[in-house]
Amino acid sequence: MADQDTAILSDRAVGMSPRLGPVSVADWSASKVVSEVVGKLKDKSRRCVGRAPGRLDIMGGCAGFSGSVVLNMATAAHVCVGVQRRDDGMVRIETVRGKDSDGSSPIELSVKALFDVEGRPIESDAGVALLENNDTTVARCVLGVFVELLRMPISSGPGGGVSIVVGSTMDNRRGLGRSAATVAATAVSVARAMDLPLDLPRAVGLCRRVESAWLNLPVAGGDAVCCLVGEPHMLMQSCLLPFDLGAPVPLPDDLVIIGLDCGVVHPDVVKKFVRVRTAAMMGRTLIDRIIRHENYEGQGGCDRLSQVSISDYVERFRDRIPTKLAGQVFYDRFGETGDELTRIEPGFTYKVRSRCEHQIYENARGRQFIEELDRAIRLGSGDILAAAGELMYSSHWSYGQRCGLGSIETDLLVNLIRGQGLGADIFGAKASGMGCGGVVTVLMRSTDCAWSAIDHVVDTYRSQTGRTAGIIKGSSPGALVFGAHTI
Q: Are 431 and 396 in contact (CB under 8 A)?
C-alpha cells in the first residue's frame, strides 16, 4: 500500500466507532462456533477471539483493480478465530470440525522455521512449501497473516509461539469473501494476543498482501475493507486506486440486500478472472499510449481506467482498441502491463476492448448507484429504487457479456428475479464476486410480498436445475469494528 493511501486511510479511520446493531459481544461469545473454537484452546492463559464477516458484492466487483468504486455489504455469516500464546516455540493451526472445515489435520511448525538464514521472515513461496500435505486455503491464510505480522515494524518477535484455531458459520462456497474474512479475523485476533497495535491501514495492507502473495488471488482489496470495517445493514463504499474509504450508506429497516447462492462455481474461475484483469490492463496501456502520443489537453497519461469517462472512451478510444489481441503481439511491443498481480500469456488471445469497456462503465454505474440509492432513501421513492436496480441488471449483463464471467445458473436466477417485477418489491439483482457462478445479490424490500417472491424464485430454480439456491441474509460488524475479545 502506498504511503499516500495509508495517510488517507488513517484520516478516514479517525473517529470510527462500533455500531453493532443487533450483534452483542455477550450473545456472540455464547454462540456454538465460538464455543467450538475456544474449546480447542487450553484454559491456562488468555484466549483472544475475534470474528470477521463475509461480504456481498453489490457493485464494482472486478472493476476495483481499475480504480472503480466498490460497494459491499458485510454478511451475518462469519469466520471466527481464537488465538493463545504458548511457550514451546511452536505455531499450531487448527480448524474446528463441521460444515466449515476444510478437512485438514492440525498443523504444527517451529517458529524458527518461519525465518530465513539471515533472520528475516520467510517469503510466501517458502511458507507454502512448509505446509506440505496440509496446503489448504485456511492454512495459507493463517500462516500468511502470522508471517506478515512478523515482517511489520510493529512486531518485536513471536515470543514463545502461538496456537490459532479457525471456525466459521460460512461454508466453502465462493462468492462470499471467505478467504478475506479468514485473513481479517486472524489478523485482528493474533495482533490482540501478541499485543500488537494493528490499526486500519496496516490491517488492510496485510490482508491485501496475504490474499495476493499467499493465496495467489488477483484481488484489489475491497473485500478486505468490508471484512475489517463493515457495519451492520450498511452499504460500504471504497475505492482502491487511490484508496478512499467513503462514508457507509445506512439502509432503512425495510430495505435489504440478500444473496442467492446458485450452487455452482466454474472450476477455472480464478484463471478466467486473471485473464479479464490482464486484458483490461492491456487496454489501459493502449489508452495511456494514445493519450501520451497525442498529448491531449496536457493529460499525463492513464494510470487507471476509472480516470476515463464514458464519453471520452466512446469518442476517442473505443474504435482504436482492438477487440482481440494475442498476448505475444502485445508483449513484443509493450512488455508487461505494469500490473504486479498478472502476467501476459504469450499464447493466449485476449478480448481487450470488451474487458476494458466493462471497467469504465462499471465505475460510472457504481457511482450512479450510490446517488440513486441515497436519493431513493431520502425521498422514499420506489421509482428511484427501480432505477438503482436497473444499474444492477446492467452490471450483471456486462459481467457476463463483456467479461465472460457469467454462468447459466446465475443468469437463470437473475432472470427469474427480474420476472417477479417491481410489484413484488424486488428492484435489482446481479452476479457477485468473481462470477462464473457463485452468488447473486438482490436489492429488495423486506416485505411479505418480496420474501414470497424470493421463495418462488428458489422453487422455480430448483425445479429447472435440480439445485437449491441458498438464501444469504443478515449483516454483522467487521473485525476491527467488533474487535478481538478475551474469553
A: yes
Listed by start position, the domains of the chain span: 3-249+476-486
Residue-wise pLDDT for 162-199, tens only, equals 999 999 888 766 678 888 999 999 999 999 988 888 88
Which has the closest alpha carbon to 10: 353, 244, 333, 240?
A: 244
Residue burial 349-377, b: 16+ Cβ < 10 Å; e: rest: ebbbbbbbbbbbbbbbbbbbbbebbeebb
- Cα 21 from chain centroid? 22
Per-residue pLDDT, averaged over 29-51, amounts to 83
User: In the structure grid, which three cell numbers stand for residue 287, read together?
Assistant: 489508452
pTM listed for this prediction: 0.87
Options 1.10.287.130, 3.30.230.10, 1.20.1560.10, 3.40.50.150; CATH of 3-249+476-486 = 3.30.230.10
Query: Strand (E) positions, 351-452?
Result: 426-431, 437-445
Type and span of the H or E element at 325: strand 325-326
Cell numbers 458459520: residue: 169
Which tens digit of pLDDT belongs to each residue from 211-234?
Answer: 989 988 877 667 888 899 999 999
CA 379 to the chain's CA centroid: 31
